[in-house]
């Protein structure tokens, strides 16, 4: 897989351009987000966080990252 190609994704409903193909893990790091208290959905499927280092984003992927917030 080429990793130096620009791609466009939809992140939480907003278009975003990436300078190269990156993994979901690299995206989380670039956003300064921990994987501890979030759910990650890729193309309408919840993904297993143990696989995010090997799961690379593709052009037109839709990714949703949801934070868990405690409350009562």
Query: Helix proportion of residues, in percent?
Result: under 10%
Query: Helix count, per DSSP?
Result: 1
Please mark out the parts with pLDDT under 50 across 5 or more consecutive residues, or reply none. Answer: none
CATH class annotation = Alpha Beta
Note the gap between the termini.
46 Å
Content-based structural category = mainly beta
Using only C-alpha atoms, the radius of gyration works out to 12 Å
Structure write-up:
- This protein has 72 residues and is mainly β.
- It has one domain: Ubiquitin-like (UB roll) (Roll).
- The protein has one helix and five strands.
- It has one helix spanning 24-30, and strands spanning 7-11, 14-18, 38-42, 45-46, 62-67.
- The chain has a five-stranded mixed β-sheet with strand order 2-1-5-3-4, with no helix packed on it.
- Strand 3 and strand 4 (45-46) form a beta hairpin.
- The chain is globular.
Based on the model shown, name its key terms.
72 residues; mainly beta; Ubiquitin-like (UB roll); five-stranded mixed sheet; 1 helix; 32% strand
């Amino acid at each position: 897989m080429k990793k130096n190609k620009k791609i466009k994704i939809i992140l939480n409903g907003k278009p975003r351009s990436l300078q190269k193909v990156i993994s979901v893990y690299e995206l989380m790091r670039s956003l300064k987000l921990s994987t501890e208290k979030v759910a990650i959905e890729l193309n309408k499927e919840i993904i297993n966080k143990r696989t995010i280092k090997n799961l690379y984003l593709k052009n037109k992927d839709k990714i949703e990252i949801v934070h868990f917030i405690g409350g009562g």
